[in-house]
Specification:
single chain; about 325 residues; mainly beta; Beta-galactosidase, Chain A, domain 5; 17-stranded antiparallel beta sheet; 4-stranded antiparallel beta sheet; 2 helices; globular; disordered C terminus
Length: about 325
């Protein structure tokens, strides 16, 4: 029996799909499942249910990553990487897999008040420690994750927060451009080919997953919407006007994975900032879960209310 939310104990510990250190954070409306041993938010679902829109890799359930592994452990869930990916080779000496300190290794956990904070070790190459504060809005189907990068050691580096949420094969994904990327056009092509059913309409871009090939696009946006068979998941952030963004000026990116692993990635990025020891940057993402009510997926896009207290994304002042 999985632990469930109670007002007296919003964060409860227990097993989840083979991980014994999982934490279930609830508010009576939704629950977030957090697994410190792999540094992920593995699921976001309605209270009392056993599944949600986040994609999880059953082949790796209960597993842990090795710091020296040459293969990336693709667990699923919600994670963070340092942007831009094009800079990894210069810092860590390889283009892939991701830097070990950011993805898949155990994180310390702090339970305080109504939230959970994951704290990573300092990544040996970037000299950066990450903190992720996961909170649920009272009585609302809304989760907020505040991700902070702290520069602890090493040479200065230009870096940005990159939040990647792996979600199940969708009925559709919608993106809402807040302005054209500096490279021009409605989107930036980040793969060899664009998704075959990519549609550009006034105020929105839509696509689905191609089972035959991987695809990726980027755009200037602060809102991505996943539409499943019975649920909606909207992820919001707030692009900073004048901010320097990677990949041709992209504050949001959508990646679709080919079979056999049927998932897509909704990615929201903070602006790049030069960091020296003592600096920190912060990026906030807000996740809103809702039930489907329209037969036409496109009709769902205007149904979710505006997210209260829009999250921010900006370099924070240097630490004293």
């Amino acid at each position: 029996m999985q632990p469930r939310y109670s007002p007296q104990d919003p964060a409860t510990r227990g097993a989840y799909h083979g991980w014994t250190d999982a934490i279930r954070l609830g508010n009576g409306v939704v629950e977030a499942v957090i697994v410190p041993s792999i540094g992920r938010v593995m699921q976001f679902q309605f209270a009392g249910e056993d599944d949600g829109p986040f994609w999880e890799n059953p082949a790796l359930a209960g597993g842990t990553a090795s710091p020296g592994a040459r293969e990336w452990a693709n667990y699923g869930g919600d994670k963070i990487w340092p942007a831009p990916q094009t800079g990894w080779s210069e810092v860590i000496g390889r283009a892939w897999p991701p830097p070990a300190g950011f993805d898949g290794l155990p994180m310390k956990v702090e339970l305080a008040g109504s939230g959970v904070t994951l704290i990573s070790a300092v990544d040996a190459a970037f000299g950066v420690r990450t903190l992720r504060r996961i909170e649920l809005r009272p009585d609302r189907p809304v989760m907020t994750i505040t991700t902070t990068f702290e520069k602890i050691a090493g040479d200065p580096v230009e870096i940005g927060v990159w939040v990647i949420t792996q979600v199940k094969d969708p009925v559709a994904v919608l993106a809402f451009p807040a302005g054209d990327p500096p490279s021009g056009g409605a989107y930036v092509r980040l793969s060899d080919e664009v998704p075959p059913d990519l549609k550009i309409e006034p105020g929105r871009i839509s696509l689905t997953r191609d089972p035959a090939k991987n695809h990726k696009i980027g755009l200037g946006s602060g809102t991505l919407l996943w539409i499943g068979r019975t649920e909606l998941l909207r992820i919001d952030s707030a692009p900073r006007a004048g901010g320097k963004y990677p990949d041709g000026g992209c504050s949001a990116e959508v990646y679709t994975n080919a079979d056999p692993l049927a998932y897509v990635e909704l990615e929201l990025l903070g602006p790049l900032a030069p960091m020296k020891v003592g600096d920190k940057i912060e990026h906030v993402t807000t996740y809103t879960l809702a039930r489907r009510s329209e037969k036409d997926p496109a009709a769902e896009s205007g149904r979710l209310p505006a997210t209260p207290a829009a999250p921010r994304s900006s370099p924070a002042p240097s630490l004293p």
